[in-house]
Amino acid sequence: MKKLSKRLESLISVIQECNTIADIGTDHAWLPIELIRRGIASKVYAIDNKTGPLNKARDNIETAGVSEKIRCILSDGLSAFQEEVDAVIIAGVGVQTIISILENAHNLKDYKRLVLQPNYGMPLLRKWLSDHDWGIIKEKILFERGTYYEIIVAVQKTQSLDEDEIEFGPILMHEKSKVFCDKYNDEIRAIQDLIPSISDYNKREELNKKVDKIKKVLQ
Which entry of 28, 84, 127, 199 is 20 to 30 Å from 56 by CA? Predict the structure, then answer.
């Protein structure tokens, strides 16, 4: 079995044991295979909108001996997916793609839990969830191969987030893990390196205020 990346291991770590899961953009189905092998899910729908990766996913699923528990589906997100599942995973894509998938889902309100990991734009995703009555119950941040990744677990509930919670994460900003602090200290250094090269006074002030804001969150 292929050794999973830290990102995929982190996704697995936030998924509670449940009956059925849909993995959107499954690629080669490494995540569904591990969810079954570890007993986290009893059935997984491996969904992708490309035939090449889906065919490879079928081969990997068969090799792993879990074909009876994973069903591969060619579909563009959740628009035509009508099966009942306990959790939906959307990871490794852009934030606009995730939002588009959620907005075009056939039965989003029927899902109990969302596990989301965009490659960028986490504040935009938090804002969307808050505006659409999805509350964040778990967040995780990790660093792998030069990139910071953040994972959100959300359930259906009303949750009002303030500006800082949207930007930094309502859970992450209070936990202040080492990885979280590393990420924003890196951002502070990047901004401070940039400021001397900017001639526009207002832009410099804007960046200085951003640095102050980050430092306050890190205190």
Answer: 84
Residues 184, 136 share a domain: no
Amino acid at 36: I
Please tell me the total count of domains within the chain: 2
- Report yes or no on 166 lying in a domain: no
Q: What angle do helix axes 30-37 and 6-14 make, rounded to 10 degrees?
A: 50
The alpha carbon torsion through 8, 10, 14, 17 (nearest 10 deg) reads 50
Same domain, 74 and 26: yes
This prediction has a pTM of: 0.93
Compute the distance between CA of residue 52 and CA of residue 57 in angstroms, rounded to an integer.
Answer: 9
Neighbouring residues of 98: CB distance < 8 A, sequence distance ≥ 6: 90, 116, 118, 125
Task: Read off the pLDDT band of 80 (50, 70, 90).
Answer: confident
